[in-house]
Amino acid sequence: MKILLILPAADHLRIGKDTRGVPKRAMLRFSILPLTLVAALTPREHYVEICDENVTPLDFAHEADLIGISFMTALAPRAYAIAAEFRRRGKMVVAGGYHPALMTEETALHFDAVVVGDAEIIWPQLLKDAECGRLNRIYRHAVLPDLTHTPAPRRDLTPKTAKHYATTSAVQVGRGCEHVCRYCSVTAFNGRTYRTRPIENVLIELSRIDRDFIFVDDNIIADREYAKRLFRAMIAMKKSWVSQCSLEITDDPELLCLARKAGCRGLFIGIETTSADNLTAVGKDFNDSHGYLKRIAKIRKQGIAIIAGIIVGLDGDDRSVFSRTISFLQKAGVDALQLNILTPLPGTPLYEDFKMAGRIVDYDWSHYDFRHVVINPAKMTRLELQNGADWLYSRFYRLDRIVLRALRTLLTAGLKPAMIALKLNLTYRYDMIREGIRGYDPLQADQKPLAPFVLQFISCVLHGNHG
């Protein structure tokens, strides 16, 4: 069979036949690891192509026999539209990824088959059924697959588009998380489990990729002893990498030191909020907000840049959260910021909480991109949350602050972390300018009666009415 695997893109990022060029935001465009892994699980008698709409126009006249689409919640409407067009043309279309797994019945209305969970066991069986022309409606594994025989992804399928990605050398060593953060879809997808690949398999894969790469694990240190063994084995390879992990890496000095020796130069860390009450409410007490500054300093002392994940709009947040967060980020010396407006993703406990309380006001999945307000906040209006988040984002990525952060990172962490941080900052700023993000501080609006009206008008013109 001819198989086409598709990664949908949001409207403002999608590449069409008439698009003049791919937006220069490679630093934040993740590798299409899920699709290249599915391709690796496909028997070689089948011909596989990959289309990432972020970098390549989608051809609905493609001669593929089977279409596979992987997507998260914000891309569900686009995925449904793609499926409808291909099905109209008589193609078999199947879905996989987080949203199909967590909203299976909804997804099944739009596809011939839905893959629920990991592909290792399910995908080969689906292909056999497709060849016979008798797809099941839903494919679900009875137990989570062991990762012992998980192959390396087929990076050979992306040579023409590789230049558009920060790296196509994306490696995964484990899946899942044992924490139970109420907003997180990782635990909802995997259960409260963490599974790892054999270290020898990981090392073989690392020996065949670029020196600079990314571990895409949600928490690279979820199994500390495994991580230590891996890092020790990597030291001689002299690699340079970035990943994601929890602040718990600072609780084990040996682990943190080994990560640095193994080549870690940057970590995305979900700090989320400076409020202890907020952390308790979302099941993330282990962050310990009172120890943030000391723990962040320990990481940066090792020469590792920190990309902080922050959520605004939690129930303990009032209008002062935006200015307080800016002050904290400056004091902590984080190198980059990923700012998220609180978004209850389908399938998570947080979603059920907000749905039961009647606080979800927008069920347009395309708005579930962490940049739109889709809930009624507890201590501010939706407009204040939207504009406050936009203001925080634009203020953090002011050009003068980017330059100062880059110089500070260079002096305190070294050249490699400084380059990573600078590229991230410039890319986030590029997105901010491209999307016209400005906003205002709701606290300051109290002192300037005309400002909210004017800025609300600007926001509505630029972003549409967010309530």
What features would you describe in this structure?
This protein is of the alpha/beta class and 467 residues long. The chain has 2 domains: 139 residues, Rossmann fold (3-Layer(aba) Sandwich), CATH 3.40.50; 201 residues, TIM Barrel, CATH 3.20.20. 39% of the residues lie in helices and 15% in strands. The protein contains 18 helices and 14 strands. The chain has a 6-stranded parallel sheet with strand order 2-1-3-4-5-6, with helices on both faces. Strands 7-10-11-12-13-14 form a 6-stranded parallel sheet. Strands 8-9 form a two-stranded antiparallel ribbon. Helix 8 runs parallel beside helix 9, helix 12 packs parallel to helix 14 and helix 15 runs antiparallel to helix 16. It is globular, with a radius of gyration of 22 Å. About 1% of the residues have low confidence.
Give the spatial strand order of the biggest sheet.
2-1-3-4-5-6
- Cα Rg: 22 Å
Mean pLDDT: 92
State the share of residues found in helices, binned by percent: 25-40%
The CATH level-2 architecture of the largest domain is identified as Alpha-Beta Barrel
Q: What is the overall number of helices?
A: 18
> Biggest sheet, open or closed, and with what strands and sense?
6 strands, parallel
Briefly note the structural class of the backbone: alpha/beta
Q: Specify the CATH homologous superfamily of the largest domain.
A: Aldolase class I
Overall geometry: globular
In the CATH hierarchy, the third-tier topology of the largest domain is known as TIM Barrel
Number of domains: 2
- Beta strand %: 5-15%
Count of distinct strands: 14
